[in-house]
Design brief:
The chain has 11 helices and 10 strands. The protein has helices spanning 2-15, 19-22, 37-48, 59-67, 81-88, 123-133, 150-161, 178-185, 197-200, 234-242, 246-254, and strands at residues 26-30, 53-57, 74-76, 97-102, 104-109, 140-144, 172-175, 190-196, 209-213, 222-228. α7 (150-161) links the parallel β6 and β7. The protein starts with a helix and ends in a 12-residue tail after the last helix. GO terms for molecular function: metal ion binding; molybdate ion binding. Keywords: Metal-binding, Molybdenum, Signal.
Length: 266
């Protein structure tokens, strides 16, 4: 009898879904938000009692995964194009909403060369190119891959604006996402890199890095859009709404994200 009861218990546990886990929605989040997001989900939990599970990555990668029915309930992209392409393909609930405007910076290891001035923020790239062309070394310049990372697209546009894209080709090292590009930018082999302003403000980087802002008109606006996906449940919907509120926008502002509709910083 005891054996039968144990067998019934095992079968019941096997067939019973893990409700507590299943109720936690998975959110696809652009890696530019990696340092801001822990505080966002902590405050959301404190306010509502609800939790979300987060996957970080490149927006273009998430776009492909969502198009292939990845089980995300909410997607926070680092651009608009990824969300709008999914909307046009009919795999989102609507066209989404812009939740923040991102910014680009030149990031370099603290004390490793002179920090470029605001009037010439890519002077370090020019110096790296000159060093390489003189045969005196190969200092690397990091950026996210423009093929699937919006901050990589902005980095390429900034380098093109400064006339440095072609000449910097032998020096470029590309991260799969902007967070990885920031790690590459701070290695011993690198002169620095073009990454998200939000990453430069991360507490873990403050003591080991320094940065200078890239003018906003050197690249297309980094309008970051989010969207609910068809399987979104109540918690994902509540989080989506909460992210548009004052508390969430105040947290994002501390990590360098501009609120939608605010005057653009130059």
């Amino acid at each position: 009898m005891a054996s039968l009861l144990r067998w019934v218990a095992v079968v019941w546990l096997a067939l019973t879904p893990p409700l507590a886990v299943a109720d936690v929605p998975t959110v696809a989040v652009a890696s530019s938000l990696q340092f801001a997001f822990p505080e966002l989900i902590e405050r959301f939990h404190a306010t509502t009692g609800e939790r979300v599970r987060v996957n970080y990555g490149a927006s273009g990668t998430f776009r492909r995964q969502i198009a292939q029915q990845a089980p995300f309930e909410l997607f926070l992209s680092a651009d608009e194009a990824s969300v709008l392409a999914l909307y046009e393909a009919g795999v989102t609930q609507d066209a989404g909403v812009v939740y923040a405007i991102g910014h680009l910076v030149w990031l370099q290891p603290a004390g490793q060369g002179t920090l470029p001035p605001a009037t010439a923020p890519l002077a370090a790239v020019e110096q790296a190119i000159a060093t390489y062309q003189a045969g005196e070394g190969r200092p690397r310049v990091a950026l996210a891959n423009p093929e699937h990372a919006p901050y990589g697209v902005a980095a390429r546009q900034a380098l093109e604006h400064a006339g440095l894209w072609e000449a910097s080709a032998p020096l470029r090292v590309m991260g799969e996402n902007v967070s990885q590009a920031a790690r590459f930018a701070l290695t011993d082999e690198a002169r620095g890199g073009l990454v998200a302003y939000s990453l430069a403000l991360a507490p873990t980087l403050v003591e080991q890095a320094e940065y200078v802002r890239i003018p906003a008109d050197w690249h297309a606006p980094l309008r970051q859009r989010m969207v609910l996906l068809p399987q979104a449940g109540d918690t994902a919907r509540a989080f989506h709404a909460w992210l548009q509120g004052e508390e969430a926008r105040a947290i994002l502002a501390r990590f360098g994200f501009q609120a939608p509709g605010a005057a653009a910083a130059r």
